[in-house]
């Protein structure tokens, strides 16, 4: 007791700074103890949840498969299926279980086709999962909305269209992207109309996903992409160029040639690449005439185009650039020469001009 | 008569369970593998009558599984590969390596049964 | 000097040390708050992302993994296998055998059916020449793989060779003995594709410690907490550095380092700045600083991104000797980089890079060990002079200690609430105990290594690379 009293007195008589140090130390120590205990609790909860989810998942996977195989040919729901729906329905209101059910359903939705994916969709409606997804759209947090839209996309819920559409103008690009993906997943090329007046940039990430979605469908009936090629939004132009390339849009060749004078370099380079795959020989003379004004990237792309679309009359132009200071252009020029005039190519190694290019000529000779 | 053995290599657990149920109902014996390496182990041990493998799998890809079966083990067990959209190139490679058939995802399990039966008949 | 002058000098020193400590603590608090915000934002953003489309798409941009290998014959075959099993479609792997004197190359040729091919290198960055040449596999299943055998030139030189050879838009530079998870590339490439208002020039990932983890066939099967206190302490240290420090700096767009073990770069920018510097031991930090400097000088908007997901696992030193030599090297790398680019420091032309990141790094990373060492010497002098006021000394030492424990615990929270990698029962208790022990187990050696690094840098110029003995990922 005496020591205790002594410590109290000692503390009271200490200077302010020391009092402060001890005060803060004790406060932090208390915090450490509380945080440690809470950490223990968190860990225990997480562990328990993991174990439960694993068990639940196994159980429900089996249930789902039972549901899918007990379906009748004509698509009506039988009693066994009804019991399974009731069983799942009971778990849906619990968030963690709902998540697992969705993930199991989704796991299959992408992998199986036909009547089976239809019956997964039926299950999605009947268990009330659909209503939860709709409720998400009304949430005030953007990421919940995005999740909701993503889910509706995965389960191909077309009838949510009117509710999803307004989000195409959402301030967060993540929500816009999910909405765009929804539109394209449901309505394919028709879903791309949002591009008509898209002001915000369309990220490469979004572009890849949109293209990937479009390629999933058998119906490859593409719409007119000219307006997008003429868009003021450069990312829309770039996206349209990718479409032109993938879907062989020969009819837009004239528009592409106009685009060769687009103010943005990246666009011009992509245009040359698109022309390459669309057999755009019409662009050749124009690019040759301007060659020295082009940026290095455009020059390289142009040689890429020549590599594919060269004709013997291009020889003088190629010859002019055989010893271009850029390695890639030189390599391409030599390759092209070899393909159109082997004799001249063979003669090169003797020419004094080729002194600095021995290595590269030898390489081209060997391929 | 002995049941015919099928190895199924697929990393999507739900899908493999779904297929397992269906194929077992048809009277086949199913051996499951979650990745390419497991698949190779099972194949070497059990010498199955048919192999179903996904192209994109953890660790050892479906392509490697096929090349191992055809080149290293020198077996001509029929192989069906599963592929997703965008993996067309890989499918071509799979055929070059000696795959017998392919199923593009999404596919219907019934369709798979038909092809399995055809290859095993 | 009379006693009053001495007193005044001591007083000034007092305030300086106190001020420094106070500033350091404040910066830690601010950084953890920022990192908390950034973590929540990151998790929200990624809660609904569907990576599946990106990984399987041939439209996604190409990535080359460049992995330099020097005398790695023990594990090289397995490690390459793990690099080849990434779940991204449009990528390839270049292994640069940097003049290994062992049989790495023969092992690779044998395991992957390699054959020598005709190849011409556009030497955009000057490197050591090829030795036997360039190899590719005859087996289409290993089509993604290329092995380049060159004369020895060090890690930076090997990476530069990879930059010259790669035809991809992006390059992932990694240590060959790192274990990359299958979804590493798709997650790391996301910022490059997603950010539209600036150019992303580089992205760094988290490095996790693989010691004692069970790895089979290039796959992480089970995460364990290692037995050795030294390794455990490094885990805690990495959690603090990656989950709190770098996360916060990423929000401020102020990252100066991308760990050499795993980072993705925009290839064009990396080549434009001349690739890796072969003259420094800290080439991984140096290239990021140089790329940032380049972008600042070009006046182009850019970002250096950071992905907190546990995607890359590597072996940490498990004995003090190797640990000290590793940290010694890091210290020298930091000194060299900061010195080489000292023009940036406190230079308004470089924006927050010059006014915030560089000074912070200089004051709280570069100078910290020196100031600490001076402080210790000063304290000893005070003891000798019998000038120590123990009640102050003890109460503030205690406060500093408790603060450091609390900071580590916050890092643990950050881990538990995000990635929760150490799931096993009983590990939590060990981790908490570690927060209390770590200041004694690890910190003195870090300090020692840093001082030694400073010494070596200034007085022992010929000091070679610290050699890290690799135990390999396959041994458990």
UniProtKB/TrEMBL annotation, chain A:
SUPFAM superfamilies: ARM repeat
Transmembrane segments: 20-39
Keyword terms: Membrane, Transmembrane, Transmembrane helix
InterPro entries reported in the protein's UniProt record: ARM-type_fold (IPR016024)
Keyword Transmembrane helix carried by entry: yes
Protein name from the UniProt record: HEAT repeat protein
Native source organism of the sequence: Flavivirga jejuensis
TrEMBL record, chain C:
An MF annotation (GO) of this entry: glycosyltransferase activity
Known EC number: 2.4.-.-
Enzyme's top EC category: transferase
Matches recorded under InterPro entries: Glyco_trans_2-like, Nucleotide-diphossugar_trans
SUPFAM superfamilies: Nucleotide-diphospho-sugar transferases
Pfam hit, one: Glycos_transf_2
Keyword annotations: Glycosyltransferase, Membrane, Transferase, Transmembrane, Transmembrane helix
Keyword Transferase assigned: yes
Domain of life: Bacteria
Residues of the Glycosyltransferase 2-like domain: 64-194
Segments traversing the membrane: 12-34, 367-385, 392-411, 431-451
Family recorded in the similarity comment: Belongs to the glycosyltransferase 2 family.
PANTHER family, sorted: POLY-BETA-1,6-N-ACETYL-D-GLUCOSAMINE SYNTHASE (PTHR43630)
Protein name listed in UniProt: Glycosyltransferase
The organism of origin for this protein: Flavivirga jejuensis
């Amino acid at each position: 007791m005496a020591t205790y009293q002594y410590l109290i007195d000692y503390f009271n008589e200490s200077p302010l700074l020391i009092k402060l140090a001890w005060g803060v130390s004790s406060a932090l120590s208390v915090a450490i103890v509380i945080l440690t205990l809470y950490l223990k609790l968190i860990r225990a909860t997480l562990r328990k949840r993991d174990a439960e989810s694993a068990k639940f998942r196994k159980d429900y996977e089996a249930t789902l498969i039972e549901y899918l195989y007990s379906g009748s040919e004509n698509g009506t729901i039988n009693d066994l299926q009804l019991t399974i729906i009731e069983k799942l329905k009971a778990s849906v209101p619990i968030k963690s279980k709902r998540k697992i059910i969705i993930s199991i359903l989704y796991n299959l939705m992408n992998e199986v086709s036909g009547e089976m994916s239809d019956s997964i969709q039926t299950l999605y409606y009947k268990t009330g999962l659909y209503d939860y997804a709709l409720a998400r759209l009304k949430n005030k947090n953007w990421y919940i909305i995005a999740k909701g839209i993503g889910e509706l996309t995965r389960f191909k819920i077309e009838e949510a269209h009117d509710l999803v559409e307004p989000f195409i103008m959402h301030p967060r690009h993540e929500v816009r992207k999910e909405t765009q993906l929804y539109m394209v997943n449901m309505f394919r090329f028709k879903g791309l109309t949002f591009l008509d007046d898209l002001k915000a940039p369309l990220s490469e990430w979004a572009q890849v996903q949109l293209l990937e979605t479009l390629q999933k469908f058998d119906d490859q009936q593409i719409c007119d992409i000219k307006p997008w090629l003429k868009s003021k939004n450069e990312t829309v132009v770039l996206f349209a160029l990718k479409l032109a390339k993938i879907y062989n849009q020969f009819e837009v060749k004239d528009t592409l040639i106009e685009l060769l004078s687009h103010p943005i370099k990246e666009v011009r380079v992509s245009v040359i690449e698109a022309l390459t795959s669309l057999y755009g020989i019409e662009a050749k003379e124009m690019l040759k005439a301007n060659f020295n004004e082009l940026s290095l990237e455009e020059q390289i792309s142009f040689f890429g185009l020549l590599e594919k679309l060269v004709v013997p009359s291009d020889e003088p132009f190629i010859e002019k650039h055989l010893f271009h200071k850029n390695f890639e252009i030189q390599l391409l020029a030599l390759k092209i020469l070899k393909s159109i005039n082997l004799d001249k190519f063979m003669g090169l190694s003797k020419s004094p001009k080729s002194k600095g290019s021995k290595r590269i000529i030898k390489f081209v000779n060997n391929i | 008569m002995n049941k015919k053995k099928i190895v199924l290599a697929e990393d999507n657990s739900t899908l493999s369970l779904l297929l397992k149920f269906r194929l077992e109902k048809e009277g086949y014996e199913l051996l499951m593998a979650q990745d390419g390496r497991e698949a190779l182990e099972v194949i070497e041990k059990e010498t199955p009558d048919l192999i179903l493998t996904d192209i994109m799998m953890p660790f050892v890809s479906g392509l490697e599984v096929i090349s191992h079966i055809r080149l290293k083990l020198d077996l001509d067990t029929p192989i069906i590969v599963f592929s997703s959209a965008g993996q067309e190139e890989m499918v071509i490679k799979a055929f070059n390596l000696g795959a017998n058939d392919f199923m593009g995802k999404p596919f219907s399990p019934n369709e798979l049964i038909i092809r399995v039966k055809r290859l095993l008949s | 000097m009379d006693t009053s002058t001495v007193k005044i000098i001591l007083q000034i020193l007092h305030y300086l040390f106190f001020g420094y400590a106070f500033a350091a603590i404040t910066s830690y608090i601010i950084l953890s708050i920022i990192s908390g915000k950034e973590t929540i934002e990151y998790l929200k953003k990624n809660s609904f992302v569907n990576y599946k489309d990106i990984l399987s798409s041939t439209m996604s941009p190409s990535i080359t993994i460049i992995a330099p290998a020097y005398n790695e014959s023990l594990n090289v075959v397995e490690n390459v296998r793990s690099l080849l099993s990434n779940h991204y479609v449009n990528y390839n792997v270049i292994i640069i055998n940097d003049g290994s004197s062992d049989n790495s190359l023969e092992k690779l040729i044998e395991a992957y059916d390699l054959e020598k091919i005709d190849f011409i290198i556009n030497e955009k960055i000057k490197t050591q020449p090829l030795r036997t040449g360039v190899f590719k596999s005859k087996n289409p299943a290993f089509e993604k793989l290329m092995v380049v055998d060159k004369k020895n030139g060090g890690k930076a030189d090997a990476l530069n060779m990879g930059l010259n050879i790669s035809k991809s838009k992006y390059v992932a530079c990694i240590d060959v003995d790192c274990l990359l998870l299958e979804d590493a590339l798709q997650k790391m490439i996301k910022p490059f594709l997603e950010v539209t208002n600036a150019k992303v020039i580089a992205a760094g990932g988290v490095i996790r410690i693989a010691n004692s983890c069970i790895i089979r066939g290039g796959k992480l099967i089970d995460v364990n907490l290692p037995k050795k206190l030294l390794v455990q302490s490094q885990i805690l240290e990495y959690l603090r550095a990656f989950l709190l420090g770098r996360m916060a700096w990423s929000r401020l767009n102020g990252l100066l380092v991308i760990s050499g073990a795993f980072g993705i770069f925009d290839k064009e920018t990396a080549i434009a700045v001349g690739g890796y510097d072969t003259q420094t031991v800290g080439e991984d930090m140096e290239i990021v600083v140089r790329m940032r400097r380049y972008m600042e000088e070009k006046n182009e908007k850019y970002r250096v991104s950071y992905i907190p997901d546990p995607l890359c696992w590597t072996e940490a030193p498990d004995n003090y000797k190797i640990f000290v030599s590793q940290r010694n090297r890091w210290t020298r790398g930091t000194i060299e980089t900061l010195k080489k680019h000292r023009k940036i420091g406190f230079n308004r032309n470089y924006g927050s890079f010059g006014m915030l990141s560089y000074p912070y790094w200089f004051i709280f990373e570069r100078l910290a060990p020196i100031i600490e060492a001076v402080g210790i010497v000063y304290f000893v002098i005070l003891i000798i002079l019998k000038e120590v006021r123990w009640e102050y000394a003890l109460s503030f030492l205690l406060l500093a200690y408790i603060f450091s424990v609390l900071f580590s615990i916050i890092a643990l929270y950050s881990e538990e609430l995000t990635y929760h990698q150490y799931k096993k029962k009983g590990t939590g208790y060990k981790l908490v105990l570690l927060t209390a022990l770590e200041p004694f187990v690890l910190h003195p050696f870090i300090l020692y290594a840093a001082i030694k690094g400073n010494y070596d840098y200034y007085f022992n110029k010929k000091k070679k690379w610290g050699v890290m003995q690799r135990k390999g990922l396959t041994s458990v």
